[in-house]
Specification:
The chain is an alpha/beta fold. The protein is 47% helix and 18% strand. The chain is built from 10 helices and 12 strands. The protein starts with 11 loop residues before the first strand and ends in a 9-residue tail after the last strand.
Length: 380
C-alpha cells in the first residue's frame, strides 16, 4: 500500500521488541507512512507505556526476556482500559502451536519474520479500520440506548399521569351505574358497564407498564408477609366480576388456609392478570377454572380456560417483553401486551416460576409456582 495517512490525529502504534535494530527499522517505515510510533524494548516497559498513553494498535514480539509476548498480551486483555486495543504478534516463531497460543491470549493477527513491510502495513490498516468501525458501532449503540431510556422515561411519565384521571373516570362511572334513582335504562346501564370494563383494563395496562419497568430495573421492593393464598385467589375473582359477561370462573378453596410468604398486592395483580388474559381469549359461555395445589415447600396456582389455545412456537414468547411486537406483527390472535411479562417478573422476584400448557382448539392452562417460605432476601 503506497497511500500515505493524512489526518489531524495520526494513528498511534506501540512496537514491542527486545532487539533495538528491529524497532528502528520498522519504526522508520511506519513513520514514513504517517503513523505515530513508540517503541518499548521489554514487556514491562510496554505495559507502562500503554497505561500512560493507550495506543491505537500494538505490534508485539513473543521471545523477550523476563516477560514474553503471551504474558504481555494476557495482561493487556485483563485491563479494562486496554483490552480493546488490537494486538498483532510479529515474531520469528512459525509453529502452528505458537499461533494458536497467540490467538488464545487475545491477539487479532500473527505475522512471521522475515516480513514484507507492505503486508505489515496492510494488516495494521485493516485492524485499525475494524477498531474504528467497532467504536463507531458502540457509539451508535450507546446513543440509541440513551434515546430508548429517554423514550421510556417519557412514556412512563405519561402513563403515570394517566392513572389518576382513569381512576377518577372509573369511580364516576361506578356512581352512574349504581345510581339509587334507577334513572338508567337497562341498555344504558349496559353501556356504562362496558365503559367501566374498558377503563379498568386501561388502568391495569398502565400499572403493568410502570411495574414491569420497575422490576426490570430492580426498583420494585416486595413487601412480603404471610398470607392465605386462597383468599387472594377469591379476591382476584371478585375484582373481575364486571368483566365476566356470560363467562364463568370456578374455584373451590381448600378446607385449610394455604399460607405463603409473599407480597399480597403483587400476587393479586398476577392472579387478576392471568384471569383477565383467560377472559380475553374465552368466548361467550366459556369456563375458566382456577386451581391451587400444595406440595412440599412450593404451591402451584393454575388458570385453565377452554378457549382456542396457543400455537407451540408462541407459548414461551408470551412472557417476553421483546416478543410482543413480533406477536402483533405476525397477526397472532394471542398478543397479551405486558401483562404476562409483568407476571413473569413478579413471580420470579418471589423465587418462583411460571409457564403455560396449551393445545390448539382445547384451551390453555397458565400456572405459577411460589416457594411457601417466600422470596430469598438479596445478599449484601
Amino acid at each position: 500500500m503506497n497511500e500515505h495517512i493524512y489526518s489531524k490525529t495520526p494513528p498511534s502504534v506501540l512496537m514491542v521488541d527486545d532487539i533495538p535494530e528491529n524497532l528502528k527499522m520498522l519504526s522508520e517505515m511506519l513513520k514514513g507512512r504517517g503513523y505515530k510510533v513508540r517503541a518499548a524494548v521489554s514487556g514491562k516497559l510496554a505495559l507502562q507505556a500503554a497505561r500512560n498513553d493507550p495506543p491505537d494498535l500494538i505490534l508485539l514480539d513473543i521471545n523477550m526476556p523476563e516477560m514474553n509476548g503471551y504474558e504481555v498480551c494476557e495482561k493487556l486483555k485483563s485491563d479494562a482500559k486496554l483490552k480493546e486495543i488490537p494486538v498483532i504478534f510479529l515474531t520469528a516463531l512459525t509453529e502452528t502451536i505458537d499461533k494458536v497460543k497467540a490467538f488464545g491470549t487475545g491477539g487479532v493477527d500473527y505475522i512471521t519474520k522475515p516480513f514484507q513491510f507492505e503486508e505489515v502495513e496492510a494488516r495494521i490498516e485493516t485492524h485499525l479500520e475494524l477498531r474504528r468501525q467497532k467504536q463507531a458501532l458502540q457509539e451508535a449503540y450507546d446513543k440509541l440506548r440513551g434515546l430508548e431510556k429517554l423514550r421510556d422515561s417519557l412514556v412512563q411519565m405519561v402513563i403515570h399521569d394517566l392513572r389518576s384521571p382513569l381512576t377518577g373516570a372509573f369511580a364516576y362511572l361506578k356512581l352512574v351505574r349504581d345510581n339509587k334513582d334507577k334513572t338508567l335504562s337497562a341498555v344504558h346501564a349496559g353501556y356504562v358497564g362496558e365503559a367501566m370494563k374498558a377503563v379498568m383494563q386501561m388502568i391495569q395496562m398502565a400499572c403493568d407498564v410502570l411495574d414491569t419497568s420497575k422490576m426490570e430495573a430492580k426498583q420494585l421492593q416486595l413487601k412480603a408477609a404471610d398470607s392465605d393464598l386462597s383468599c387472594i385467589l377469591e379476591d382476584g375473582i371478585s375484582g373481575l366480576k364486571p368483566l365476566l359477561a356470560k363467562r364463568e370462573i370456578r374455584f373451590t378453596a381448600p378446607e385449610s388456609p394455604v399460607m405463603v410468604r409473599l407480597d399480597r398486592e403483587i400476587i393479586l395483580r398476577v392472579v387478576q392478570n392471568l384471569l383477565s388474559n383467560a377472559l380475553k381469549f374465552t368466548g361467550e359461555g366459556g369456563l375458566i377454572r382456577l386451581g391451587i395445589e400444595t406440595g412440599g415447600d412450593r404451591v402451584r396456582v393454575s388458570v385453565k380456560d377452554n378457549g382456542a389455545g396457543i400455537q407451540p412456537e408462541y407459548r414461551q414468547k408470551l412472557f417476553e417483553k421483546s416478543a410482543q411486537g413480533e406477536l402483533r406483527t405476525a397477526g397472532q390472535r394471542y398478543s397479551p401486551g405486558l401483562g404476562l411479562t409483568f407476571c413473569k417478573l413478579a413471580v420470579e422476584a418471589h423465587g418462583g416460576s411460571i409457564g403455560v400448557e396449551s393445545e390448539e382448539g382445547k384451551g390453555s392452562s397458565f400456572w405459577f409456582e411460589l416457594p411457601v417460605n417466600g422470596p430469598v432476601p438479596p445478599q449484601g
